[in-house]
Amino acid sequence: MIGISALLRRDLRLALRDGIGPWTVLGFFVIAVAVFPLGIGPEPQLLARIAPGIIWAMALLSALLSFDSVFEADYRDGSLDLLLSGRTPPELLVLTKALAHWLTTGVPLVCLAPVLAVLLHLPAEAMVTLVMSLLLGTPILSLLGIVGAAISLGARHGTVLLAIMVLPLAAPVLIFGSGAVEMTMTGLASDASLLILGGVSLGAVVVCPIAAAAALRQAVE
Amino acid sequence: MIGISALLRRDLRLALRDGIGPWTVLGFFVIAVAVFPLGIGPEPQLLARIAPGIIWAMALLSALLSFDSVFEADYRDGSLDLLLSGRTPPELLVLTKALAHWLTTGVPLVCLAPVLAVLLHLPAEAMVTLVMSLLLGTPILSLLGIVGAAISLGARHGTVLLAIMVLPLAAPVLIFGSGAVEMTMTGLASDASLLILGGVSLGAVVVCPIAAAAALRQAVE
Amino acid sequence: MVVIGQTLKRVAQPSHFMQISGRWLPWISALAVGLLAVGVYFSLFASPADYQQGESVRIMYVHVPSAWMGLFVYALVAALGGIGLIGGHPLAFAAARAAAPIGAVFTALCLITGALWGKPMWGAWWVWDARLTSMLLLLFLYFGVIVLNDAFDTVRRGEKAAAVLALVGCINLPIIKFSVDWWNTLHQPSSVMKLGGPSIDGSMLVPLLLMALAFKLGFFALWLMRTRTLVLAAKTRAAQGRMDVSSVPILEDAQ
Amino acid sequence: MLLPALPFAASFPLTAHDLTCVRGDHRVFSGVSFSLKSGQALHVTGQNGAGKTSLLRLLAGLIAPEHGTIHWQDGETVAQAPERALYIGHLDGLKPSLTAQENLNFWASFLGQGSVQPLPSDPFVVTPLLSRAVRVLSAGQKRRVSLSRLLPSSAWLWLLDEPTTALDAMSQTILWQLVQAHCARGGAVVVSSHGACPLAHAMTLDLSVPLAMAEAT
Amino acid sequence: MLLPALPFAASFPLTAHDLTCVRGDHRVFSGVSFSLKSGQALHVTGQNGAGKTSLLRLLAGLIAPEHGTIHWQDGETVAQAPERALYIGHLDGLKPSLTAQENLNFWASFLGQGSVQPLPSDPFVVTPLLSRAVRVLSAGQKRRVSLSRLLPSSAWLWLLDEPTTALDAMSQTILWQLVQAHCARGGAVVVSSHGACPLAHAMTLDLSVPLAMAEAT
Ligand code: HEM
Ligand SMILES: Nc1ncnc2c1ncn2[C@@H]1O[C@H](COP(=O)(O)OP(=O)(O)OP(=O)(O)O)[C@@H](O)[C@H]1O
Ligand SMILES: Nc1ncnc2c1ncn2[C@@H]1O[C@H](COP(=O)(O)OP(=O)(O)OP(=O)(O)O)[C@@H](O)[C@H]1O
Ligand SMILES: [Mg+2]
Ligand SMILES: [Mg+2]
Question: What is the Rg, in whole angstroms, of the alpha carbon atoms belonging to chain D?
Fold first, then answer.
């Protein structure tokens, strides 16, 4: 346990110090959201309609951005060997990594979303759904990404694998997430989509660590 | 010269083998097609309205995502030392790097843009302008990014620094680029904007390598 | 001209700088506080409400000066950075480094007051018009400069990098300034600093200028303090003896 | 310089039987057998690519043998009880952006030995380096920091892959003394190196020799 | 094993005068002066952190001296004519995902020496490794590949930072022979190492000694 918490603290500290993490996400997020109006033009209602899409797309991107560094760095500098030869079961390691990744990318995103929503003139009533959907959806992204990162670790075409594996799996999440928000905007009930998201993330918490751990053992070979 | 072409070939090979450039472009492509139409709904003219903005935003973001890997890897494994202590002037090195980056992110985007435009119902007459604007604009993004990457090399918070530095400088490009397309769609002549883009491109080719080279020398210190 | 150059050179010796700034600081600070008090009084009580904007016009007395300062300080940071890069004078870097965060605060203040003002005036906290956007970008540039300044193990490298960024970012200033004329923005065009004299009523102009002056003096006071702190910090770092004095650029007086 | 006594009375003699190692798709070595008892040291040599690192990784449970078995006396395999061995390889497992102190603390608490401030003892003189980011340390300074992980460790078996790399003469002597001390307190060591190994009592396993047997020496 | 003659008749004696080196914010060494003529070798020693790597990076023109000068006889500074020196440091500058062949070819043609297939001569026996990705090579095999860059190089001055790291006994001998051969053909070498340096004619520069002078030996 103490080992796990140490790992978590280290990963968070590294994220804060090296910039892949909250700062990057924040930066990208704000930037991306600034970029679309620049390109599309200022009409509020138009922006409002693509707001969910933009915010969710950014969520995925800022997640993607930081995946390849999740194990890559530890692998390169030999930390991974030591981590795996410790007392802690790999599944737990992976889960911790996923948690750290979520805390440093998902959470800042959830906190920032309302601000951006205001900047993009998203109607107030949709705000809650947006935050909820992100809160339920981003963990899935992190967990999927971890599996991808583990599988693609040390492999030829690593990042390629990562992108190819994560994107198709993540796209549905994206569609449900932004879909939920849009439903609220058009006055429909979004509970169904949110429930699905919640269910999927529970499933992911169980399945992904096992898959990722198996992949990791292969990687250090 | 032969040195330069060797470097270019190597960078391209690396980018394809374990780079993220082309794949983020692909990723954006998927996302844009999968997500935004959902938000906008089926109305073709609305989709067409946001198409230029979306595509240009993608251009900027996919560029941003792949910058930090431009020098980082070479810096870490010591290649940069050797590159800089070779016969080739650093400015030329940087220019080559920028070219490689453009070929792996800008060009794929230029090629994908028409497809995306069709899917987003962009009127045919705007297509040419879109491609032209991307062709003239994306090199600027690559060049700006290279400077950012060089400056932020070995810095704490490297990635977000990069984003913060590049965005304000890249924003005008975005505005002119998507502006040009929108002008064509509203029947105005877009030559002026395109000319400006072209001019800036040329200017960047001259200025950016010098700045980046200076920064690089600092970095290997 | 030459004389000014010489005096500047002399002042720029860290030792002289510490003396002179030490002597002036209290007066400047006092003056700034005083002016601020008067300015606040004028803008809150001794000036009329606007016939269409009502009381909310009073936001202007904070908004506009902070906007001006935001732009001014950025220009200053860039200029100092340039001097540092060309002349390689350590004090210039220190001064630039000291100024940046203050400028960022002014810029943020302008954005916030602007947003507060925007809600009643335009019915929205934020609109993506050219001026607002370009001002937001200026804030990003400030962040970039600040972070870059201490992103490296070697103090000097951070300062150089930050200077480069500050200089490059200058193109944003004219964009902000003239955005209102180049594009048709929601934001109103210049009415004070423009050719052919201000087109704003004296009863509002007076408090506006008072506040502007107070802000400027306030900035100078803070700026001096921060610069002095940085010089002293460098001194102490040297005193800790982990390195020898000659490797702390800021301590050697330029001959 | 004395090391704290190992936390367990019993020791875990280790037996490797008829190991075959395959990396990628080619066989590195086969038929390697040896056993390690408390206080013993095994010196692994062999030309580049002979399989020294591979052998150590096998013992650390990081890779699985193609054929053959490695297990502790009490029947556990190394993969089941990895914490009995501490592996320090070519790569130092230190984070460049963290200070030496932060790195050491992390490994100490991750490997479950509590924080290491102050260091129990500081044979490698890393104290002056603790406050600096590992990024700015010299090759040998990095190495000394990563070797300092041995001190708080309660592992019975030390797996050291060319530990003297980048160390200056002084630190090398200290390292060998440390290894001696570890054997003296009942631990065991497997160390790979290209130079001669100054450990008087060490057995030698030369992987260049086909079908090498530790008993061969 | 013979090296091709250096492409230039003239040699470029190098003079380093009163060098002071500052890394980060602290002074590493100062007052270092020496000169290198054709055929000479300089052996740099000193405890970890003494500044060996820093000195080599100075000579490679990668970092600038805080104070002091380094220049070739014809007045050029190292920064102006970096191609006269070849620096091989702690890091090998090889891309893990490329094969050894691809890596060597790249460096050969980048450093302007044309492709290296087949290798002019293969003292380090890397031929069997050429087709494999560098990622899967052992430490010493990597090292041998990166040292192979010396062969096609036409640089006059070799800057070798602890070149024997991870090399087996055999390859080490070969390396020293190669250095000898380079001196014999009129080149010069600056090599840092912790062990003794088997080069008979080498001058020694010990950076642990304050105000070291190469002439001191
Ligand atoms: C976040 C939103 C806003 C931003 C970023 C912003 C930014 C600026 C800037 C940069 C200036 C200085 C222009 C110069 O130096 O010439 C300025 C001036 C001014 N702003 Fe705003 N502004 C905002 C909102 C508003 C609103 C809502 C109003 C009132 C309707 C307003 C009224 C003014 C006025 C009257 C000036 C003085 C113009 C002059 O006389 O030169 N601003 N603003
Ligand atoms: N990039 C850097 N920034 C700041 N300080 C550095 C940097 N690189 C090295 N140093 C410091 O400079 C000193 C000299 O480092 P250098 O690598 O030259 O030593 P060295 O003689 O090569 O040691 P080793 O034998 O361990 O390789 C060390 O104290 C090190 O901490
Ligand atoms: N990850 C890997 N995948 C495939 N083959 C590998 C891998 N790692 C090492 N090898 C190969 O296995 C063999 C043994 O490698 P190993 O690192 O064990 O050698 P070593 O004895 O440690 O050599 P050195 O003295 O250079 O460290 C080498 O031929 C190497 O090419
Ligand atoms: Mg090995
Ligand atoms: Mg060194």
Answer: 17
Helix axes A22-40, A44-76, angle to 10 degrees: 150
Give me the helices (H) in chain C, please.
Answer: 2-11, 14-44, 60-87, 90-122, 130-149, 155-169, 172-182, 202-239
Q: Which helix (H) or strand (E) holds B55?
A: helix B44-67
8 Å CB contact of C128 and A121: no
d(CA A30, CA A115): 9
DSSP code at position E213: B
Helix (H, G, I), strand (E, B), or coil: what is residue B196? Answer: helix
- Span from the CA of D161 to the centroid of ligand 4 (angstroms): 7
β-pair partners for E159: E87, E190
CA B190 – CA B133 distance, rounded (Å): 10
Q: Closest residue of C to D135, CA-based?
A: C153
Task: Compute the distance between CA of residue C138 and CA of residue D75 in angstroms, rounded to an integer.
Answer: 67
| Residue of minimum CA distance from atom 18 in ligand 1 | C64
pLDDT tens digit at each of 221 positions of chain A: 677 888 999 988 888 776 555 666 666 677 777 777 877 777 788 888 888 888 888 777 777 767 767 788 888 888 998 888 877 888 999 999 999 989 988 888 888 888 888 888 888 888 889 999 999 999 998 998 888 888 877 665 556 666 667 777 787 888 888 888 888 888 888 888 888 889 988 998 998 899 888 888 877 77
Residue with tokens 């932004």: A178
Residue C241 has pLDDT above 60, yes or no: no
Q: How many Å lie between the alpha carbon of A118 and the closest alpha carbon of chain C?
A: 8
Cα–chain center distance at A128: 19
Distance CA B120, CA B44 (A): 7
Q: Kindly report the CA angle at D118 between D117 and D122, in degrees rounded to 5?
A: 120
Nearest CA to ligand 1 atom 24: C114
ipTM for the predicted complex: 0.82
Q: Is C139 on the interface with A (CB under 8 A)?
A: no
The three-class DSSP label of residue E165 is coil
Candidate from B18, B61, B174 with C-beta closest to A158: B18
pTM attached to this predicted model? 0.84
